[in-house]
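Protein in question kept underneath.
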Amino acid sequence: MQLRVLILFLLLLKISIFFSQETISISIHHDTKFLFIGDERGNHAGTTDILIKLEFPVKKFKKAYLTVFPSFEFADLHSGALKRYSLGAGYTQKDIFLKKLYLGVYGDYGFIKRMGYNTNSFGLHFELFYRINNRFSLSYIHQIIERSDLKNLYNETNYFKPSSFVGFKIHF
């Protein structure tokens, strides 16, 4: 499974570099709930939950662009580490309400590895970021993720979970 993800990533990288019309970006975010509060399952404030995304713009419009991306999320949870790998695509609109304020809507599909289970997972993300300069942006992501691992581990029936992340983007 990891070999397929690597091959898809390399193919995506090759296509994106060939067609890219904007800058390639890497974003690093941390889950706000785990950073400040924790949760009811024994994960305390300060629990690591990092989301890393490598974005490749593939189609440019006057004030918007389409992107494709691989992403990786790692959470060092009390009951066992979570790793989520995904590939996605989305739409980003420039200059929303303010100059340099961007709004993106993205969808992705991937899988979650946790405690011996590999489960499929869909995601929907909304991102708001402010471009401080040509190389750096501050960013907020709100996501709704199909946490299929919770269905297997805890027999939960409501396993679509929202979460919020704060972080930054570096534009190359």
The chain has one domain: 2-171.
